[in-house]
Every structure is written in C-alpha cells, then in structure tokens.
Write a structure and sequence with these properties.
The structure is a single chain. This protein has 337 residues and is of the alpha/beta class. It has a single domain, classed as Nicotinate-nucleotide-dimethylbenzimidazole phosphoribosyltransferase (CobT), large domain (Rossmann fold, 3-Layer(aba) Sandwich), CATH 3.40.50.10210. Helices cover 41% and strands 16% of the residues. The two termini are 34 Å apart.
C-alpha cells in the first residue's frame, strides 16, 4: 500500500476580537477551537471538542454549507478504498487544545504542539526530519493549513511584495466585518511601513506574521527534496515573500479552481516563482446531489484544510470525477438527511 501523509498546520492569527473579522470560527471566545475541530472532522467525520460544554459534531454551518474538513474526510475514505493509507500529522501552532480523535477513521495520527513563536523550532525538530524520511520511503505528502484570521497577514505580505491594492476577504462577506478588517490592514501597513522588504523582518515580528506563515518560511528555506503546499492565498504569501531564499528542490502549490475566480488571486498566482509548479483541481461540485456542496461552485467557500490539493491528489491517482463527488456526498449525506 502507498502512504499519503496529510500534514495540517493549525493556528489562530494574532488579531484581537478575531470573531469580528472572520465567519470561519466558532464565535467570541471560541476561535481557537476551530482548527482543532477541523482536524477532528478530517480524521473522524465529526467534531468532538465541545463548544461551551455543548457537543456539536455536525459539519453543517449556519448558512447551510458544509465545512471543507468533512469533504477532505470523504476524499480520504475514497483514497483508502483505492489502497492508500492515510497518516495525519497535526501541528498545533500556539494552540492550547489537543484534538479529540475518538472515532478516528484514518490509519495513523501524530499530534505535535508548540508555543507561539516556536514554529521554526518545531519544524526543524519534527516536520523537516519527517519529510526527509517520507521522501526516502517514497511516501507522498500534502502540507495544508487550518487557520483563522491568517488571510489578513497573507494580504499584508502580498501587498508589500506585489501590489498595495490587493484585497482578500477570507471567510466573510459581511460588510461590517470587512470594514473592520480593512482598518486592521491599514494599521498593520502603517506599523510595517518603515521596514525593508525583507521577509525575515516580517516573520520575526509576531505582530506582522501568522504562525502558519512562519512555519512555511522555515520549510521553504530548507534543502528538502520536495514540498507540496496545499492552499490558496495563505500559501501564496510565504512562497512569494521567500522567493530568492527558497532551498527546496521541487516545490508545488495545489489549490481549488475557485481560488482563481478572484482577480487579485490571479495576480498572486501569476507572481509565483518559476520553480513552483501550480496546479488547481478540476472536479465540478455541481454534480453533487446536495446544495450544501454545490454552493462551493458559487464562491461561498474558496479553500480550506487543503481541500483543493486533496482533490488534485485524488484526480492524479485515478479517482474519476464521479467517484470524487460520490465520496463527498457519502461524507455529508447522513448530516443533511
């Protein structure tokens, strides 16, 4: 059997009152639990960590969508039927909680923690040696992220390195939240205006970077045989900012086709370095029997939990579009019945 190592970098951005700019989290005082619950959805098909003491296992959100995490879970079950073994590596970056993996349906799970600011050390001590082991063993890997608020810092970086006009709304379309986010970005820009365009200045300042960005920068500057990054804007930012400092031999970035529906995302994608292979998924969610999945095609959710990369991996390893959609439908069917 072939191994797929799914690596998720879980974090919450350093934004006060984060619930005021993001729709992705669990609300005031609960935002740190969202990445952990994503990991539980991916591994188990349901969330186990309680919210204010209440058990809420469902992947269905308030607006009728299902989370990307449950779709990743469905894809992994389809890949396992095709002969793959799935090993989940969960990196809790600055998060105090640990995923409750009761009911895990994957083959292996490894969980690591670090305090905020210790991301580079954790990468060097744990993930980088593991990636080298995987390469020697001929195992595949995808490095995804599950974060809240990180798009704010990705936007800051992409504005600094590419174009001041770039705008990425992240998880929300709420006008009030977008206005708060815009003011926050203006403040961050003013704070960093005196700095040189040196990625090290930004990654060393915990007020101008996100834990996922800092972890990715450490990976990119390491002489790894390959690095497969799964995600959209959150992955564009460190790859573009680290251009010229990247030591990875084979670099790829995989994401959903919907990421490129945005003009600003297309600008960022076109600015990826020449040594970065950029691939998007092809499957159409319009073939799903459930509106909660078909809504993805309307732009309600763009990316999350490395969904696009998992779709690409499934497409590249023999799953037909129908098999992919069937796997997504099976993952959510009993929640939507």
């Amino acid at each position: 059997m072939s191994w797929l190592n799914y690596i998720t970098l879980n974090a919450v951005a350093p934004v006060p009152e984060l619930h005021q700019i993001s729709d992705a989290g669990e609300g005031a005082g609960l935002m740190q639990l969202h990445p952990t619950r994503d990991t539980e959805q991916i591994a188990c098909g349901h969330a186990n960590t309680r919210l204010n003491g209440e058990y809420r296992p469902s992947p269905v959100t308030g607006n009728g969508l299902v989370t990307p995490a449950i779709l990743v879970h469905g894809l992994f079950q389809a890949l396992r039927k095709k002969g793959f073994r799935i090993r989940l590596h969960c990196y809790q970056l600055g998060l105090d909680n640990t995923p409750d993996l009761t009911g895990c349906k994957l083959d292996e799970v490894v969980v690591h923690h670090c305090q905020t600011g210790e991301e580079a050390r954790l990468m060097q001590d744990e993930l980088i040696p593991e990636l080298k082991r995987q390469a020697e063993a001929g195992e595949a890997h995808l490095i995804a992220e599950s974060g809240i608020g990180g798009t704010t810092f990705a936007t800051l970086w992409l504005r600094r390195w590419l174009d001041l006009s770039l705008w990425f709304s992240g998880s929300t379309t709420d006008p009030q939240k977008l206005a708060i986010k815009s003011r926050l970005l203006e403040s961050l820009w003013n704070q960093s205006s005196g700095l040189p365009s040196d990625v090290n200045c930004f990654r060393q300042d915990h007020g101008l970077s996100d834990p996922v960005q800092r972890a990715c920068c450490t990976l990119l500057e390491t002489a790894l045989p390959s690095l497969n990054l799964a995600g959209g804007v959150m992955m564009f930012a460190p790859v573009i900012a680290m251009h010229g400092h990247t030591a990875v031999k084979e670099l790829s970035l995989l994401t959903t086709k919907w990421v490129l529906d945005s003009r600003d995302a297309r600008i960022a994608a076109a600015s990826l370095p020449d040594n970065c292979i950029f691939t998007t998924s092809k499957a159409s969610f319009l073939h799903s029997q459930y509106p909660a999945i078909r809504m993805y095609e309307q732009g309600y959710i763009i990316e999350g939990c490395g969904l696009g990369a998992c779709l690409v991996f499934a497409e590249q390893h023999g799953l037909s579009e129908q098999e992919i959609i069937d796997s997504l439908d099976r993952a959510v069917g009993h929640w939507l019945a």
